[in-house]
UniProtKB/TrEMBL annotation:
Keywords: Cell membrane, Membrane, Transmembrane, Transmembrane helix, Transport. One of its GO terms (cellular component) is plasma membrane. It comes from Kribbella kalugense. InterPro entries: EmrB-like, MFS, MFS_dom, MFS_trans_sf. This is EmrB/QacA subfamily drug resistance transporter.
Length: 491
């Protein structure tokens, strides 16, 4: 009894709100590094191609090498956080990511850059997979947890827009190498702060979940699956023999993994967690909404560049309203909305606003005006994202046991990553197919392809609204939950 009290008194949570919020900002700094890296690199791809002599097809590996490692390891990294300690996995991931960033910046050959990007993906997975689990542990009280998740959701969802701007500035003002070098001081500072501000957790111990076959099967399935989406499916088509073969391999590995987890004494991913209707629904919504949102940020950037003639810096500035609106809502108002209405209603409203915004984008013409045809869309996306994503993150962790928090955190991240990759591949393919089939002038044909993909993206997000309405259980009033918790504590 006294030993437990003494331990709690020395923890960040017990030392006062300031320590916990500083720990949260440290976790979000780590997440921001990971999120920024994706869009920063996208902006710098033309400069990287010119400098290192990549062909158009080989240049894709600068992105794909990262995505395959990142998407493939998220689920495993989340479970490792439960077993080995989440702070240990978080800091190890930061060290790997930062070191790999330096290697990327120093790269003088194509091979060195691609290998370093793969290692970066490993570090990114280790870092980001455990963050949400650490946040719900740091902030067990519902109101503070909702506010903390709002900050995290803003960084995770809106950081990409900042990356567009930062990538344009660094690439044009200095060189593409510096989009990676800037991670060195940020990474070192974040590691130091993490060791100082975040309490070291012991973890369940490796003996509680040593499931090497399961780890190999799920990591292999996710890596092959992501590779299938970003490479043969995008380049050869969804019905190409190579695409179908790799898709079949992915399904076989997934089936073998499920069979393994159902019979293993200490499964890597206990299948019991999927009995939670809330967790399963939240992950399905994450996959669907990420498919629509991520693909549109990519295709929306192409519309601004190829149709309206924007350069990299102008594209970054164009997307800033989404970041500002999303940040204002996530940080300042999301907690109030969740506490007032519960997480389900803000989730449904936010997703609906995103679907409306995507549908509105289908009206952007060849000679479009930013303030008339683009800004309202980006404002709706920011408004919807700022309302729904914090609620979704909270729901994804609301029905999870403490010992499974890292796994649940890695799972929601995996669904977002796979959904984004799948959505991008599908929407980009549909856009290119519609453009190629059009008999209109070049810019009109290009725009019609984007319009078709915008409409499909809106339909995908609308499907996530249906899931939120039909699958997610109506949330009880937060005040009632808090009162019940207080009664239990008093008892």
């Amino acid at each position: 009894m006294y030993a437990t009290t003494d331990t709690q008194a020395t923890s960040p949570a017990a030392r006062g709100g300031r320590s916990r919020w500083l720990a949260l900002y440290t976790l979000c700094a780590g997440m921001l590094m990971i999120v920024l890296d994706v869009t920063v690199v996208n902006v710098a791809l033309p400069a990287i191609q010119d400098n290192l002599g990549f062909t158009s097809s080989s240049l894709a590996w600068v992105v794909n090498a990262y995505l395959i490692a990142f998407g493939g390891l998220l689920l495993l990294a989340g479970r490792l956080g439960d077993l080995l300690g989440r702070r240990n996995v978080f800091t190890a991931g930061l060290i790997v990511f930062t070191a790999a960033s330096v290697l990327c910046g120093l790269a003088q050959t194509q091979e060195m850059l691609v290998i370093a990007r793969f290692i970066q993906g490993v570090g990114g997975a280790l870092t980001s997979a455990v963050i949400l689990g650490m946040i719900v542990t740091l902030f067990p009280e519902p109101r503070e947890q909702a506010k903390a998740i709002g900050v995290y959701a803003f960084v995770a969802s809106a950081g990409g827009s900042i990356g567009l701007l930062a990538g344009g500035v660094l690439t044009q003002a200095i060189s593409w190498h510096w989009i990676f070098f800037v991670n060195l001081p940020l990474g070192v500072l974040t590691v130091v702060l993490a060791l100082k501000l975040i309490e070291k957790d012991k973890g369940l111990g490796i003996g509680k979940g040593t499931d090497v076959p399961g780890a190999v099967l799920i990591t292999g399935a996710l890596m092959v699956g992501v590779f299938t989406i970003v490479k043969p499916a995008a380049e050869l088509g969804w019905t190409a023999p190579r695409t179908l073969t790799l898709a079949a391999v992915t399904l076989v590995l997934l089936a073998a993994f499920v069979a393994r987890e159902a019979t293993a004494a200490n499964p890597l991913v206990p299948l019991r967690i999927f009995r939670s209707r809330t967790l399963t629904g939240a992950n399905l919504i994450q996959a669907l909404s990420s498919s629509g949102m991520f693909g549109i940020f990519f295709l929306g950037s192409l519309y601004l560049q190829r149709v309206l003639g924007y350069d990299a810096l102008e594209i970054g500035l164009a997307f800033l309203p989404t970041t500002v609106v999303m940040g204002l809502l996530s940080v300042k108002y999301s907690e109030k909305l969740v506490m007032r209405f519960g997480p389900r209603r803000p989730l449904i409203v936010g997703l609906s606003l995103i679907a409306v915004g995507l549908a509105l984008f289908t009206q952007a013409p060849v000679g479009g005006n930013y303030f008339i045809h683009v800004l309202p869309v980006l404002a709706l996306l920011g408004l919807g994202g700022g309302i729904c994503f914090p609620a979704l993150m909270g729901l994804s962790m609301s029905d999870v046991k403490p010992e499974d928090a890292g796994l649940a955190s890695g799972l929601i991240g995996t669904m977002g990553e796979v959904g984004a990759a799948l959505g991008l591949a599908i929407l980009a393919t549909l856009s290119a197919t519609r453009t190629a089939a059009s008999t209109k002038p070049a810019l009109e044909a290009l725009t019609s392809g984007y319009h078709f993909s915008f409409a499909v993206a809106a339909a995908i997000v609308a499907a996530s609204v249906v899931v939120a309405i039909t699958v997610m259980r109506p949330a009880k009033q937060p005040a009632e939950s808090t009162d019940r918790e207080l009664c239990l504590e008093a008892a």
